[in-house]
């Protein structure tokens, strides 16, 4: 694998994946850069043994970079809240709840889905990825991603009660 062409070959793919996780293009750009920095640092650890594709390996690095960023953001928020002497944000949160009731219901129902169905749903609806891209990221086929997405939609239509894989 040529270290110089990694970004050219996989940059857009990883960026789209990170956009689905962050729902923020600027954050996704920053995390994409960090992903490729980490990938180049540890490229000697990637062994193509027929089990893992390079794009899957990059997506796992991207997901770890994103999770680290989420963890840092949570720590920062906790610190800011502990330093703040303001009253709790109960009323603004309540107002936000009523403004975003449909979103809340959607995400609440999505929590009843299996992790795979939930991730496919997010990648498709929030990330606007193709079923082929979703299959590649999650190690399945395009058809598998399409069928699983359809089943997740059906389960969501029923209120997400059924938690089968």
TrEMBL record:
Identify this protein by name: RNA polymerase sigma factor
Q: Which SUPFAM superfamilies match?
A: Sigma2 domain of RNA polymerase sigma factors, Sigma3 and sigma4 domains of RNA polymerase sigma factors
The record places domain RNA polymerase sigma factor 70 region 4 type at 111-156
Query: What's the domain of life for this entry?
Result: Bacteria
One short Pfam name that applies is: Sigma70_r2
Where does the RNA polymerase sigma-70 region domain start and stop, copy by copy?
A: 6-74
Q: Which PANTHER family match?
A: RNA POLYMERASE ECF-TYPE SIGMA FACTO (PTHR43133), RNA POLYMERASE SIGMA FACTOR HI_1459-RELATED (PTHR43133:SF8)
Family from the record? Belongs to the sigma-70 factor family. ECF subfamily.
Keyword list (alphabetical) reads: DNA-binding, Sigma factor, Transcription, Transcription regulation
């Amino acid at each position: 694998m040529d270290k110089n062409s990694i970004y050219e070959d996989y940059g857009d793919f990883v960026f789209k994946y990170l956009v689905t996780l962050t729902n923020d293009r600027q954050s996704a750009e920053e995390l994409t850069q960090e992903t490729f920095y980490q990938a180049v640092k540890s490229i000697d650890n990637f062994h193509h043994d027929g089990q893992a594709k390079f794009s899957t390996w990059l997506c796992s690095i991207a997901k770890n970079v994103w999770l680290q960023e989420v963890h840092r953001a949570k720590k920062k928020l906790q610190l800011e809240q502990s330093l703040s002497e303001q009253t709790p944000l109960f009323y603004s949160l309540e107002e936000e709840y009523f403004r975003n009731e449909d979103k809340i219901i959607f995400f609440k129902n999505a929590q009843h889905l299996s992790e795979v169905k939930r991730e496919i749903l997010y990648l498709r609806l929030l990330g606007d990825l193709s079923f082929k891209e979703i299959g590649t990221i999650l190690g399945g086929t395009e058809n598998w991603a399409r069928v699983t997405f359809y089943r997740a939609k059906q389960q969501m239509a029923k209120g997400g009660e059924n938690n089968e894989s």
